[in-house]
Amino acid sequence: MTENVRGSFHIQTRVISALLMREIITRYGRNNIGFLWLFVEPLLITLAILAIWTFSGAHTVSKLNIVAFMLTGYPMTMMWRDAANRSLNAIGSNISLLYHRNVRVLDVFTSRILLELAGNTVAFIGLMLVFIFIGIIPAPANILYMVYAWVLVAWFGSALGLIVGVLAERIEVFGQLWRAFSMVLMPISGAFVFVDSVPFTVQKVLLWMPMVHGTEMLRHGYFGTVVRTHENPWFLIVVNVVMTFVGLVMVQKYSRGVEPS
């Protein structure tokens, strides 16, 4: 029994690794810097947002380091949003691969989501290290708490990706609607504001958004006691468990009706 489980795990690991490589080559090609675009793309977008905030004078509004503030908000928002967006049309563009016995619908979603999580994580770590090294931002107060926050939001993005991916396959217009809706979610994701800085009634609304708790946690870990945050990690964990269960059930039911063409 144990050998069978180990063998199945080994096969699925190889399948997902192969899907990851195929996705990288299909998306970025073999020329120029190739797969490095996986990390450079989110890095450039984050740098552009940082530049806009810095040169617009936003750093004069607060004594808080504006680069650190943006760096602890926008990349995390990009991560869960990209994980969901890349799940759109994941099956449609890889339908022929499902002819292979060991390739499942869940593997296709997993490979795309892992790719986005990895790209955004490496870009975030790279920017943090560079900015700390050249003295633009100070070192974090609690790195472990930041890692805890990042993992929880990566989990949230993965579960969200499964749900969004299946809905987009079942409902033709859902993909376009989701892209627009995700843009609406960004300003209320906590990326551009501290929960503590908005009126109490707005705080209660923001704290119903799971990703806000992740952003507050990340900023708590980075700034420490310098700022007041309002996160509830257990709320985010419960939401992640429920969303993961729903996502896996949706993928299982959808998989039964998929016919490779």
UniProtKB/TrEMBL annotation:
GO molecular function terms noted in the UniProt entry: ABC-type transporter activity
Ion transport among keywords: no
Membrane topology: Multi-pass membrane protein
Domain ABC transmembrane type-2: 33-254
Ranges in a coiled coil: none
Classification via Pfam families: ABC2_membrane
Compartments, as annotated in UniProt: Cell inner membrane; Cell membrane
Protein name as annotated: Transport permease protein
Organism whose genome encodes this protein: Ephemeroptericola cinctiostellae
Taxonomic classification: Bacteria, Pseudomonadati, Pseudomonadota, Betaproteobacteria, Burkholderiales
Gene name of the encoded protein: kpsM
